[in-house]
């Protein structure tokens, strides 16, 4: 559904009023590739929980399915999350994937249970400005998305991500057998809602139902850099 002429004008006015003359900092997106069947993952899961409480970090847990073969099927795992991790590996010129892996702003990866290394990467990305501004707002059962840029950045994907804030799971088999583990920011949906040429302002409205938090990401195609992100809790 496209915005009405009145709403289009209102969004454009809002963007122009809030736009800065220079490139701006944006929340740092941390994607954790994890599994309930991985004994090295619980410390990374706990770290992601802490990171997600920061206003300057958007934390997302993507549970992969390639640990399921050892006897415990991850109840949150989806094959498409494994494919996303493989996409990052291919983009980086690697042939293997692992857990727990954190990918920061789509650009750098780090072992997710190494807090100091993760902190350094987040600070590195916090210091970087982005040419893209992003504004999102919920209007009933629709989500308004407005993006603009100070220079060409396209083409880019516009993603809508939904996540479950927290769940506790008792693991009965596999490497974490006998443990009750708590998981945070569990991604449940990850959909492309638009492709933007990265030049003219991007204005769109998409369906948004349910009470789950929502995140919009503007990411360069081919598993490139996350240029902007916004969250509705």
UniProtKB/TrEMBL annotation:
InterPro entries: DUF1223, Thioredoxin-like_sf. Keywords: Signal. This is DUF1223 domain-containing protein. It comes from Roseivivax isoporae LMG 25204. PANTHER family: LIPOPROTEIN LIPID ATTACHMENT SITE-LIKE PROTEIN, PUTATIVE (DUF1223)-RELATED (PTHR36057:SF1), PTHR36057. Residues 1-19 form the signal peptide. The keyword rRNA processing does not apply. It holds the Pfam family DUF1223.
